[in-house]
Design a protein that fits this description.
Layout lengths: L24 H23 L2 E2 L6 E2 L1 H9 L9 H8 L3 H13 L2 H16 L6 H5 L9 H16 L12 E6 L3 H13 L6 E6 L4 H12 L2 E6 L2 E5 L4
Parallel strand pairs: 3-4
Antiparallel strand pairs: 1-2, 4-6, 5-6
Helix pairs in contact: 1-2, 1-5, 1-7, 2-5, 5-7
Length: 237
């Protein structure tokens, strides 16, 4: 004879046990962004009213941020040269990169600092800021003092040479596709000392867009991009 079913009044209680929290990836990204903020702001201070390493035209602080996001950390380029190198229309590239800027605190801080410097100079919003849809603005008192100090420090700092350094190492990737190319670059750069330069020859059609993005994600610096030639500086450890 089968055992009688248990009455609902006598069912054992359901115990909810807490689960271990998952790693907070957002917190890690926030910490990385906070650590990068002073570097981006300092790059804007150094690069505002500097020169593009490609065409020697004037570079504004917003273009310094665009170049930083695309991996050209130590070698700012104007928006025109960035767009030409990536095969994009200038206004489309600015709008696309600005979306990434808005989602990372350190890049946003650099962008705001560039806007404050331009407002302090009384020049209004630059063409890059206008292309990104930024309305004209005036700096508040704190921003005015910070921008003044930054401009004074940048003026007193020695000007870095704009000549592109020569690489002691060269890798000809031929037509290697993006996935295999970045894997090979990762292995080759790992074998080099921090700060070393690697010249890369990459003829894959996607390289002009893939290499700047990869450098920006991995922390390596793309010093030069003249397809099919690229110059990469290994990140410091």
């Amino acid at each position: 004879m089968p055992a009688p079913l248990a009455s609902p009044d006598h069912e054992p209680p359901i115990v909810h046990r807490p689960t271990a929290p998952e790693p907070d990836a957002d917190a890690d990204r926030d910490a990385d962004s906070a650590a990068e903020t002073p570097q981006v702001v300092a790059a804007v201070e150094r690069g505002a009213s500097g020169r593009c390493v490609r065409c020697q035209g004037a570079v504004c602080g917003h273009e310094v941020v665009l170049a930083w996001v695309l991996g050209f950390k130590d070698a700012p380029r104007c928006a025109g040269c960035l767009a030409t190198g990536l095969g994009r229309a200038r206004h489309e590239l600015i709008a696309s990169v600005k979306q990434h800027v808005d989602h990372r605190d350190c890049w946003s801080a650099g962008w705001r600092h560039a806007s404050s410097i331009e407002a302090l100079r009384g020049a209004g919003s630059c063409a890059v800021a206008r292309a990104a849809g930024e309305p004209p603005r005036s700096p508040d008192s704190a921003e005015r003092h910070a921008a003044t100090d930054a401009l004074a420090a940048a003026a007193a700092a020695p000007t870095a040479a704009t000549a592109t350094p020569r690489a002691a190492h060269c890798y000809d990737a031929g037509d290697l596709g993006c996935g295999d190319l970045v894997l090979e670059l990762r292995l080759r750069l790992r074998e080099l000392a921090p700060g070393s330069l690697l010249e890369v020859i990459a003829r894959d059609p996607g390289a002009p867009a893939d290499l700047p993005a990869w450098c920006g994600l991995t922390g390596h610096t793309l010093l030069e991009a003249a397809p099919p030639r690229y110059l990469i500086r290994r990140r410091p450890d």
